[in-house]
Protein backbone atom coordinates (compact mmCIF):
# COMPACT_ATOMS: atom_id res chain seq x y z
CA UNK A 1 0.00 0.00 0.00
CA UNK A 2 2.86 2.41 0.61
CA UNK A 3 4.50 2.63 -2.83
CA UNK A 4 1.59 4.60 -4.37
CA UNK A 5 -0.23 7.65 -3.03
CA UNK A 6 -3.85 8.67 -3.44
CA UNK A 7 -4.27 12.34 -4.39
CA UNK A 8 -7.37 13.65 -2.66
CA UNK A 9 -8.98 16.99 -3.47
CA UNK A 10 -9.64 18.74 -0.15
CA UNK A 11 -12.36 21.42 -0.54
CA UNK A 12 -11.75 24.85 0.89
CA UNK A 13 -14.64 26.99 2.05
CA UNK A 14 -17.36 25.97 4.48
CA UNK A 15 -16.46 22.26 4.39
CA UNK A 16 -13.02 23.08 5.78
CA UNK A 17 -14.49 25.07 8.67
CA UNK A 18 -14.85 22.84 11.75
CA UNK A 19 -17.94 24.85 12.77
CA UNK A 20 -19.66 24.64 9.38
CA UNK A 21 -20.21 22.40 6.39
CA UNK A 22 -21.10 19.21 8.24
CA UNK A 23 -17.69 19.13 9.96
CA UNK A 24 -15.61 17.29 7.37
CA UNK A 25 -12.54 17.46 9.61
CA UNK A 26 -14.25 15.40 12.31
CA UNK A 27 -15.64 13.00 9.71
CA UNK A 28 -12.14 12.32 8.40
CA UNK A 29 -10.64 11.98 11.88
CA UNK A 30 -13.33 9.56 13.06
CA UNK A 31 -12.65 7.53 9.93
CA UNK A 32 -8.97 7.20 10.89
CA UNK A 33 -7.70 9.97 8.58
CA UNK A 34 -6.57 12.73 10.91
CA UNK A 35 -5.52 15.89 9.11
CA UNK A 36 -3.25 18.81 9.93
CA UNK A 37 -3.32 22.21 8.28
CA UNK A 38 -6.72 21.70 6.70
CA UNK A 39 -8.61 23.77 9.27
CA UNK A 40 -6.17 26.69 8.96
CA UNK A 41 -6.13 27.08 5.20
CA UNK A 42 -3.50 24.46 4.32
CA UNK A 43 -1.39 22.92 3.21
CA UNK A 44 -3.41 19.89 4.23
CA UNK A 45 -1.68 16.71 5.31
CA UNK A 46 -2.89 13.34 6.51
CA UNK A 47 -1.02 13.05 9.79
CA UNK A 48 -0.89 9.28 10.10
CA UNK A 49 -0.85 8.13 6.46
CA UNK A 50 1.83 9.26 4.06
CA UNK A 51 0.17 7.41 1.18
CA UNK A 52 -2.78 9.83 1.24
CA UNK A 53 -1.92 13.20 -0.31
CA UNK A 54 -4.15 16.21 0.39
CA UNK A 55 -4.53 18.66 -2.51
CA UNK A 56 -6.19 21.87 -1.30
CA UNK A 57 -8.58 23.36 -3.82
CA UNK A 58 -12.01 24.63 -4.70
CA UNK A 59 -14.89 22.22 -5.37
CA UNK A 60 -15.61 24.31 -8.47
CA UNK A 61 -12.38 23.01 -10.03
CA UNK A 62 -12.30 19.40 -8.85
CA UNK A 63 -14.37 18.07 -11.75
CA UNK A 64 -11.77 19.33 -14.24
CA UNK A 65 -8.91 17.97 -12.16
CA UNK A 66 -10.54 14.56 -11.91
CA UNK A 67 -11.26 14.61 -15.63
CA UNK A 68 -7.58 14.98 -16.53
CA UNK A 69 -6.47 12.65 -13.65
CA UNK A 70 -4.67 15.43 -11.82
CA UNK A 71 -6.63 14.19 -8.81
CA UNK A 72 -7.53 10.60 -7.96
CA UNK A 73 -10.33 11.46 -5.55
CA UNK A 74 -12.26 14.62 -4.73
CA UNK A 75 -14.63 15.64 -1.97
CA UNK A 76 -17.19 17.79 -3.76
CA UNK A 77 -20.85 18.51 -4.37
CA UNK A 78 -22.57 16.90 -7.33
CA UNK A 79 -23.61 20.36 -8.59
CA UNK A 80 -20.04 21.55 -9.25
CA UNK A 81 -19.03 18.19 -10.67
CA UNK A 82 -21.92 18.33 -13.14
CA UNK A 83 -21.02 21.94 -14.00
CA UNK A 84 -17.52 20.93 -15.06
CA UNK A 85 -18.75 17.86 -16.97
CA UNK A 86 -21.12 20.09 -18.95
CA UNK A 87 -18.44 22.75 -19.53
CA UNK A 88 -16.09 20.16 -21.04
CA UNK A 89 -18.90 18.85 -23.24
CA UNK A 90 -20.33 22.21 -24.36
CA UNK A 91 -17.16 24.28 -24.78
CA UNK A 92 -14.53 21.67 -25.63
CA UNK A 93 -16.55 18.81 -27.14
CA UNK A 94 -14.89 16.52 -24.60
CA UNK A 95 -16.69 13.87 -22.59
CA UNK A 96 -15.42 13.21 -19.07
CA UNK A 97 -16.92 10.42 -17.01
CA UNK A 98 -16.82 10.81 -13.25
CA UNK A 99 -18.34 8.57 -10.59
CA UNK A 100 -19.85 9.35 -7.21
CA UNK A 101 -18.68 6.43 -5.07
CA UNK A 102 -19.90 7.55 -1.63
CA UNK A 103 -22.53 10.13 -0.57
CA UNK A 104 -21.49 11.88 2.67
CA UNK A 105 -24.93 13.01 3.92
CA UNK A 106 -23.88 16.66 4.19
CA UNK A 107 -23.63 19.79 2.06
CA UNK A 108 -27.20 19.40 0.80
CA UNK A 109 -28.39 22.26 -1.42
CA UNK A 110 -30.88 22.89 -4.23
CA UNK A 111 -30.05 24.57 -7.51
CA UNK A 112 -33.15 26.50 -8.54
CA UNK A 113 -34.46 28.71 -11.30
CA UNK A 114 -35.61 32.09 -9.95
CA UNK A 115 -37.68 35.05 -11.16
CA UNK A 116 -39.25 38.10 -9.52
CA UNK A 117 -42.21 37.29 -7.32
CA UNK A 118 -44.40 39.79 -9.14
CA UNK A 119 -44.83 37.35 -12.02
CA UNK A 120 -47.80 35.02 -11.70
CA UNK A 121 -46.21 32.23 -13.72
CA UNK A 122 -45.78 28.95 -11.84
CA UNK A 123 -43.42 27.14 -14.21
CA UNK A 124 -40.33 28.08 -16.19
CA UNK A 125 -42.11 27.20 -19.44
CA UNK A 126 -45.03 29.56 -18.68
CA UNK A 127 -42.64 32.37 -17.83
CA UNK A 128 -40.50 31.87 -20.94
CA UNK A 129 -43.54 31.90 -23.23
CA UNK A 130 -44.51 35.25 -21.74
CA UNK A 131 -41.13 37.02 -21.91
CA UNK A 132 -39.80 35.66 -25.21
CA UNK A 133 -42.27 37.53 -27.39
CA UNK A 134 -40.31 40.02 -29.48
CA UNK A 135 -36.96 39.12 -27.90
CA UNK A 136 -33.80 38.18 -29.77
CA UNK A 137 -31.76 37.49 -26.64
CA UNK A 138 -32.64 35.90 -23.32
CA UNK A 139 -30.29 36.77 -20.45
CA UNK A 140 -29.59 34.38 -17.60
CA UNK A 141 -27.38 35.01 -14.57
CA UNK A 142 -25.77 32.19 -12.56
CA UNK A 143 -22.69 31.01 -10.71
CA UNK A 144 -22.93 27.73 -12.63
CA UNK A 145 -23.27 28.90 -16.24
CA UNK A 146 -23.15 25.56 -18.06
CA UNK A 147 -25.53 23.77 -15.72
CA UNK A 148 -27.85 26.75 -16.07
CA UNK A 149 -27.51 26.89 -19.86
CA UNK A 150 -28.33 23.18 -20.14
CA UNK A 151 -31.39 23.68 -17.93
CA UNK A 152 -32.65 26.75 -19.83
CA UNK A 153 -32.24 25.06 -23.21
CA UNK A 154 -34.31 22.14 -21.91
CA UNK A 155 -37.05 24.49 -20.70
CA UNK A 156 -37.07 26.38 -23.99
CA UNK A 157 -37.38 23.09 -25.85
CA UNK A 158 -40.28 22.06 -23.62
CA UNK A 159 -41.95 25.38 -24.40
CA UNK A 160 -41.39 24.98 -28.14
CA UNK A 161 -39.04 27.99 -28.23
CA UNK A 162 -35.55 26.54 -28.59
CA UNK A 163 -35.40 27.04 -32.36
CA UNK A 164 -35.99 30.76 -31.80
CA UNK A 165 -32.86 30.99 -29.63
CA UNK A 166 -30.33 28.70 -31.37
CA UNK A 167 -27.09 30.30 -30.18
CA UNK A 168 -25.53 30.84 -26.79
CA UNK A 169 -22.70 32.75 -25.16
CA UNK A 170 -21.23 32.32 -21.69
CA UNK A 171 -19.53 35.51 -20.54
CA UNK A 172 -18.80 37.76 -17.59
CA UNK A 173 -21.63 39.78 -16.10
CA UNK A 174 -22.70 42.70 -18.32
CA UNK A 175 -19.89 42.24 -20.82
CA UNK A 176 -21.06 43.04 -24.40
CA UNK A 177 -23.10 40.23 -25.91
CA UNK A 178 -21.13 38.04 -28.32
CA UNK A 179 -24.23 36.93 -30.18
CA UNK A 180 -27.17 38.69 -31.83
CA UNK A 181 -29.69 35.95 -31.25
CA UNK A 182 -29.89 33.33 -28.51
CA UNK A 183 -29.05 32.87 -24.83
CA UNK A 184 -26.52 35.06 -23.05
CA UNK A 185 -25.42 33.47 -19.78
CA UNK A 186 -23.77 35.88 -17.39
CA UNK A 187 -21.36 34.08 -15.04
CA UNK A 188 -21.23 35.77 -11.64
CA UNK A 189 -19.45 35.32 -8.32
CA UNK A 190 -22.44 35.50 -6.05
CA UNK A 191 -25.41 37.71 -5.24
CA UNK A 192 -27.36 36.28 -8.14
CA UNK A 193 -30.58 37.17 -6.34
CA UNK A 194 -29.70 40.90 -6.32
CA UNK A 195 -29.12 40.86 -10.08
CA UNK A 196 -32.49 39.23 -10.75
CA UNK A 197 -34.28 41.58 -8.34
CA UNK A 198 -32.77 44.64 -10.04
CA UNK A 199 -33.54 43.46 -13.59
CA UNK A 200 -29.95 42.53 -14.38
CA UNK A 201 -31.19 39.45 -16.25
CA UNK A 202 -34.41 37.83 -17.40
CA UNK A 203 -33.96 34.78 -15.22
CA UNK A 204 -31.49 33.43 -12.65
CA UNK A 205 -30.22 30.13 -11.33
CA UNK A 206 -29.21 30.13 -7.68
CA UNK A 207 -27.86 27.80 -4.98
CA UNK A 208 -30.11 27.64 -1.93
CA UNK A 209 -30.77 25.62 1.20
CA UNK A 210 -33.96 27.03 2.71
CA UNK A 211 -34.95 29.63 0.12
CA UNK A 212 -35.25 32.34 2.79
CA UNK A 213 -32.74 34.70 1.12
CA UNK A 214 -34.70 34.48 -2.13
CA UNK A 215 -37.92 35.47 -0.35
CA UNK A 216 -36.14 38.41 1.27
CA UNK A 217 -35.25 39.66 -2.22
CA UNK A 218 -38.81 39.31 -3.46
CA UNK A 219 -38.02 36.33 -5.69
CA UNK A 220 -39.64 32.97 -6.19
CA UNK A 221 -38.52 29.53 -7.34
CA UNK A 222 -40.01 28.34 -10.62
CA UNK A 223 -38.07 25.10 -10.97
CA UNK A 224 -35.58 22.87 -9.20
CA UNK A 225 -32.66 22.36 -11.56
CA UNK A 226 -31.08 19.69 -9.35
CA UNK A 227 -30.47 18.67 -5.76
CA UNK A 228 -26.86 18.37 -4.68
CA UNK A 229 -24.99 16.63 -1.89
CA UNK A 230 -21.32 16.41 -0.99
CA UNK A 231 -19.76 13.07 -1.83
CA UNK A 232 -16.59 11.24 -2.81
CA UNK A 233 -15.96 11.47 -6.55
CA UNK A 234 -13.43 9.62 -8.69
CA UNK A 235 -12.38 9.20 -12.27
CA UNK A 236 -13.34 5.54 -13.00
CA UNK A 237 -9.97 5.07 -14.74
CA UNK A 238 -8.48 4.97 -11.23
CA UNK A 239 -9.85 1.44 -10.81
CA UNK A 240 -7.40 0.16 -13.44
CA UNK A 241 -4.49 0.90 -11.06
CA UNK A 242 -4.63 -1.98 -8.58
CA UNK A 243 -2.57 -0.22 -5.88
CA UNK A 244 -4.61 2.97 -6.03
CA UNK A 245 -7.81 0.93 -6.15
CA UNK A 246 -6.72 -0.76 -2.90
CA UNK A 247 -6.08 2.63 -1.28
CA UNK A 248 -9.43 3.90 -2.50
CA UNK A 249 -11.25 0.86 -1.10
CA UNK A 250 -9.58 1.40 2.28
CA UNK A 251 -10.48 5.11 2.23
CA UNK A 252 -14.11 4.43 1.30
CA UNK A 253 -14.63 1.57 3.75
CA UNK A 254 -13.61 3.71 6.70
CA UNK A 255 -15.49 6.80 5.57
CA UNK A 256 -18.64 4.75 4.98
CA UNK A 257 -18.34 3.32 8.50
CA UNK A 258 -18.27 6.80 10.00
CA UNK A 259 -21.14 8.09 7.86
CA UNK A 260 -23.15 5.00 8.84
CA UNK A 261 -22.48 5.68 12.55
CA UNK A 262 -23.55 9.32 12.50
CA UNK A 263 -26.56 10.07 14.72
CA UNK A 264 -26.42 6.57 16.18
CA UNK A 265 -25.57 5.32 19.66
CA UNK A 266 -24.92 1.90 21.15
CA UNK A 267 -27.29 0.88 23.94
CA UNK A 268 -25.85 -1.86 26.15
CA UNK A 269 -27.94 -3.46 28.90
CA UNK A 270 -28.25 -6.55 31.11
CA UNK A 271 -31.32 -8.77 31.09
CA UNK A 272 -32.29 -11.49 33.58
CA UNK A 273 -32.18 -14.78 31.72
CA UNK A 274 -35.84 -15.49 32.43
CA UNK A 275 -36.73 -12.24 30.56
CA UNK A 276 -34.67 -12.91 27.41
CA UNK A 277 -37.59 -14.11 25.27
CA UNK A 278 -39.64 -11.00 26.12
CA UNK A 279 -36.69 -8.71 25.30
CA UNK A 280 -35.94 -10.53 22.03
CA UNK A 281 -39.59 -10.21 20.96
CA UNK A 282 -39.56 -6.47 21.74
CA UNK A 283 -36.34 -5.96 19.78
CA UNK A 284 -37.66 -8.00 16.86
CA UNK A 285 -41.07 -6.26 16.77
CA UNK A 286 -39.33 -2.87 16.65
CA UNK A 287 -36.61 -3.92 14.18
CA UNK A 288 -33.84 -3.07 16.62
CA UNK A 289 -31.40 -5.61 15.22
CA UNK A 290 -30.47 -6.91 11.77
CA UNK A 291 -29.95 -10.67 11.53
CA UNK A 292 -30.07 -11.44 15.26
CA UNK A 293 -29.50 -9.50 18.50
CA UNK A 294 -25.97 -9.28 19.85
CA UNK A 295 -25.94 -11.12 23.19
CA UNK A 296 -23.32 -12.34 25.64
CA UNK A 297 -24.90 -15.04 27.82
CA UNK A 298 -24.19 -15.32 31.54
CA UNK A 299 -25.42 -17.58 34.32
CA UNK A 300 -28.06 -15.21 35.69
CA UNK A 301 -27.95 -12.17 33.36
CA UNK A 302 -27.16 -11.77 29.68
CA UNK A 303 -25.76 -8.63 28.06
CA UNK A 304 -27.41 -7.21 24.95
CA UNK A 305 -26.16 -4.42 22.66
CA UNK A 306 -28.16 -2.61 19.98
CA UNK A 307 -27.57 0.34 17.67
CA UNK A 308 -30.20 3.05 17.90
CA UNK A 309 -30.78 6.22 15.90
CA UNK A 310 -30.71 9.31 18.11
CA UNK A 311 -33.17 11.26 15.98
CA UNK A 312 -35.78 8.57 15.26
CA UNK A 313 -39.15 10.26 15.80
CA UNK A 314 -41.16 7.05 15.44
CA UNK A 315 -39.23 5.26 18.19
CA UNK A 316 -37.23 7.78 20.22
CA UNK A 317 -34.17 6.68 22.16
CA UNK A 318 -35.70 7.76 25.47
CA UNK A 319 -38.75 5.55 24.87
CA UNK A 320 -36.60 2.55 23.94
CA UNK A 321 -34.65 2.80 27.19
CA UNK A 322 -37.85 3.18 29.20
CA UNK A 323 -39.49 0.17 27.57
CA UNK A 324 -36.35 -1.94 28.01
CA UNK A 325 -36.44 -1.10 31.71
CA UNK A 326 -40.10 -2.13 31.87
CA UNK A 327 -39.12 -5.52 30.44
CA UNK A 328 -36.58 -5.95 33.24
CA UNK A 329 -33.37 -4.58 31.65
CA UNK A 330 -30.73 -3.33 34.12
CA UNK A 331 -27.65 -1.11 33.83
CA UNK A 332 -28.78 0.47 30.56
CA UNK A 333 -25.73 2.31 29.19
CA UNK A 334 -25.70 4.55 26.14
CA UNK A 335 -22.41 5.09 24.29
CA UNK A 336 -21.47 7.09 21.19
CA UNK A 337 -20.41 5.25 18.02
CA UNK A 338 -17.59 6.74 15.97
CA UNK A 339 -17.65 4.12 13.25
CA UNK A 340 -19.86 1.22 12.23
CA UNK A 341 -18.46 -0.70 9.27
CA UNK A 342 -20.91 -3.08 7.63
CA UNK A 343 -18.16 -5.06 5.90
CA UNK A 344 -16.55 -5.21 2.48
How would you characterize the overall build of this protein?
Helix content is 30%, strand content 29%. The two termini are 18 Å apart. A 6-stranded mixed sheet has the order 9-10-8-11-7-12. It has 344 residues and is α/β, with parallel strands linked by helices. Strand 2 and strand 3 form a beta hairpin.
In a nutshell, what does this entry contain?
The chain is α/β, with parallel strands linked by helices and 344 residues long. Helix content is 30%, strand content 29%.
The coarse overall form would be elongated
Strand order of the largest sheet: 9-10-8-11-7-12
Tell me the distance between the termini.
18 Å
Average pLDDT works out at 94
Count of alpha/pi helices: 10
Rg over C-alpha atoms, rounded to the nearest angstrom: 26 Å
**What structural category characterises the helix and strand content?**
alpha/beta
Query: How many extended strands?
Result: 17
In terms of DSSP E residues, the strand content is 25-35%
Q: Which percent range fits the helix content?
A: 25-40%
Contiguous runs where pLDDT drops below 50 for at least 5 residues: none
Question: What is the H-and-E element order?
Answer: EHEEEHEHEEHEHEEHEHEEHEHEEHE
Largest sheet: 6 strands, mixed
Amino acid sequence: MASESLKIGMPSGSLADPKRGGNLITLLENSGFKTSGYDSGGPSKFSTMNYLFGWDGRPQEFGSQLGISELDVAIAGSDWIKERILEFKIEYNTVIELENVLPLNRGNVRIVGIIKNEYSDQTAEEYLKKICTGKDIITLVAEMPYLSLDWLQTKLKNAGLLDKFPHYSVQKYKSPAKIKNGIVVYETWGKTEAKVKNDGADIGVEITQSGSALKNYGLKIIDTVMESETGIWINPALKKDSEKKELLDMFLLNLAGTVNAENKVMVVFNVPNDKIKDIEKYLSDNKLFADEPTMNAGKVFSEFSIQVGKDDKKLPLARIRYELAKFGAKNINTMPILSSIKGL
